[in-house]
Amino acid sequence: MLAPLDRTARDGGREGALVLLGYACAARVSELVALDLADVVETGDGLLVPV
């Protein structure tokens, strides 16, 4: 069973963001790991994330 994330801690916030991004994009773990911050583009509607 997974332990709850401490979203106030640096690592917990990062992990929480990855879980939410993976769910929203229906991305595989390998696709999330391969993402670079430079790949993510902020638009008026949200984030554009190539998967």
How is the topology of this model organized?
Elements: H1 10-25, H2 29-34, E1 41-43, E2 46-48
Antiparallel strand pairs: 1-2
Content of β-strand: 5-15%
Strand order of the largest sheet: 1-2
Rg, please? 12 Å
- In total, the number of domains comes to 1
Q: What is the β-strand count?
A: 2
Helix content: 40-55%
Briefly note the structural class of the backbone.
alpha+beta
User: How far apart, in Å, are the first and last alpha carbons?
Assistant: 28 Å
Shape: globular
Number of helices: 2
| Element pattern in H and E | HHEE
Largest sheet: 2 strands, antiparallel
Query: Mean pLDDT, rounded to whole units?
Result: 85
Low-confidence stretches: none
What attributes characterize this protein structure?
alpha+beta, two-stranded antiparallel sheet, 51 residues, 12% strand, 2 strands
Short description:
The chain has 51 residues and is α+β, with helices and mostly antiparallel strands. The chain has helices spanning 10-25, 29-34, and strands at residues 41-43, 46-48.
Mind explaining what this structure looks like?
The chain has 51 residues and is of the alpha+beta class. It has one domain (10-48). The protein is 43% helix and 12% strand. The chain is built from two helices and two strands; from the N terminus they run ααββ. A two-stranded antiparallel sheet has the order 1-2. β1 (41-43) and β2 form a beta hairpin. The longest helix has 16 residues, at 10-25. It is globular and about 30 Å long.
